[in-house]
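Good morning,

Attaching, inline, the C-alpha cells for the sequence recovery test we're adding to the shared suite. The designed sequence is right after.
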C-alpha cells in the first residue's frame, strides 16, 4: 500500500463522537463537530453527523466549501473570524461565523444583503487566553452595533481557551460567559441561542459535575480524533486513542555508531545534534520527515525510539526490532503531528471500514 499514509478508523471516530455527544447531552450541552484537522473530510463529517453532533465547525472556508461540494448537509459554522477578502464565500457557504470585529460584521452584512440571505453571528469573548475575543466590557456595545446590521442575525456568544496561553476552562471563566449571556438577554431581550463554551479543553470542566449554566455548546475536534483531553493529554475514559495511525516505510536499515563524527555545527532544523553515546545501534530511516509530520509528536512502537528528523527522513533507533528496507512502521500521533500529516500532500489518507 502507498506510504506514508494515515489510516483512519471511521468506526472508532464515530464511537468516540457518540460517547462525547451522549455524555454532554446529559449536561445540557450539544456538540459542534470540528473538521479542520481532517481538512473537512466528508467521511469524518458523515461519521460525526451519524454520532449526533448538532452541526459542523471549521476554521477554514475552503474546508466548509469542500464539505458542501461533497454534499454534506448540516449547519456549518466558520469558527475563525472571516477574512474581509472572503466574506462572499463565507455568506455563501457557512450559516454562522465567529466574529470579533464590527468591520467584518459590516462586510458580512453587505455580502448577505447582496446574496439575499441572512448570516448568523456568534460574538467571541476574551476570557483570558489572549487569542480571539471581544473584551467583556465591550460586549454590550458590540452587540448593540451588531443588531443594527441588515441580514445579520446574532446567534450567540462564545469563548475559546487553552489555545494560545493554555488557560484552563473552569467554573470561574465559564460562569463569566454565562453571566454575560444573561446580561445580554436581559438588556436586549432573549436572543442568544448559542453559548459556546470552548473546545476539547472544556471537557474536564463540562463533565466535572459543576453547574454548566448557560453553556449549551462545545466545539470538539481533538477529543473525538485522538480520544484525549488537551489540557493534560490524558486518555478520556471509554474513548479509542488509536483511531488514527501513521504508517511510514523503511528506506535504510543499518548498524551505525550513535555518535556523529567531524566538526559539529547546526542541524537542518536547528535541533541539538545527537548526544549520549550508546555505542553502535540499529539505525532505521523512514521516508517521512518534518515536511509531513511533526516528529516530536509521533509515538514510535515500543522498543523503538525516534532519534531525529530532517525534511524527508525520520531516524529511529529500532532496538532489537527487525526493520528491513520496505517494512512499514506505525506511529501514534499527537494533535500537532496529526494536523501536519493531514495537510501534507505526500501523506495518503486511507479511511478504513465504514462505520
Ligand atoms: C480548533 C478549534 C476548536 C476545536 O479544538 P479542539 O481542541 O480540536 O477540540 C474549537 N474552537 C475553535 C475556535 C477552534 O479554532
Amino acid at each position: 500500500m502507498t506510504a506514508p499514509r494515515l489510516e483512519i478508523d471511521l468506526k472508532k471516530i464515530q464511537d468516540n463522537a457518540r460517547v462525547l455527544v451522549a455524555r454532554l447531552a446529559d449536561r445540557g450541552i450539544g456538540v459542534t463537530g470540528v473538521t479542520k484537522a481532517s481538512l473537512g473530510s466528508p467521511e469524518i463529517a458523515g461519521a460525526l453527523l451519524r454520532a449526533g453532533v448538532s452541526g459542523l465547525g471549521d476554521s477554514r472556508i475552503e474546508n466548509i466549501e469542500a464539505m458542501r461540494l461533497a454534499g454534506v448537509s448540516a449547519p456549518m459554522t466558520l469558527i475563525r473570524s472571516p477574512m474581509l477578502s472572503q466574506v462572499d464565500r463565507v455568506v455563501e457557504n457557512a450559516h454562522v461565523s465567529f466574529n470579533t470585529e464590527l468591520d467584518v460584521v459590516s462586510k458580512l452584512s453587505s455580502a448577505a444583503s447582496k446574496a439575499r440571505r441572512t448570516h448568523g453571528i456568534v460574538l467571541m469573548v476574551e476570557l483570558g487566553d489572549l487569542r480571539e475575543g471581544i473584551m467583556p466590557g465591550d460586549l454590550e456595545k458590540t452587540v448593540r452595533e451588531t443588531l443594527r446590521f441588515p441580514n445579520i442575525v446574532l446567534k450567540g456568544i462564545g469563548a475559546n481557551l487553552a489555545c494560545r496561553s493554555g488557560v484552563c476552562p473552569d467554573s470561574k471563566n465559564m460562569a463569566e460567559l454565562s453571566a454575560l449571556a444573561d446580561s445580554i438577554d436581559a438588556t436586549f431581550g432573549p436572543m442568544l441561542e448559542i453559548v459556546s463554551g470552548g473546545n476539547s479543553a472544556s471537557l474536564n470542566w463540562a463533565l466535572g459535575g459543576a453547574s454548566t449554566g448557560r453553556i449549551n455548546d462545545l466545539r470538539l475536534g481533538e477529543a473525538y480524533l485522538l480520544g484525549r483531553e488537551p489540557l493534560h493529554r490524558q486518555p478520556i475514559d471509554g474513548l479509542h486513542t488509536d483511531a488514527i495511525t501513521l504508517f511510514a516505510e523503511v528506506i535504510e536499515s543499518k548498524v551505525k555508531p550513535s555518535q556523529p563524527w567531524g566538526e559539529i555545527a547546526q542541524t537542518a532544523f536547528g535541533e541539538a545534534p545527537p548526544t549520549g553515546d550508546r555505542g553502535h545501534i540499529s539505525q532505521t530511516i523512514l521516508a517521512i520527515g518534518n515536511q509531513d509530520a511533526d516528529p516530536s509528536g509521533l509515538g514510535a512502537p515500543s522498543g523503538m525510539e525516534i532519534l531525529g528528523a530532517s525534511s524527508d527522513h525520520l531516524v529511529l533507533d529500532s532496538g532489537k526490532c527487525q526493520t528491513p528496507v520496505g517494512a512499514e512502521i506505525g506511529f501514534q500521533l499527537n494533535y500537532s503531528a496529526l494536523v501536519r500529516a493531514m495537510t501534507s500532500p505526500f501523506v495518503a489518507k486511507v479511511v478504513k471500514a465504514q462505520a
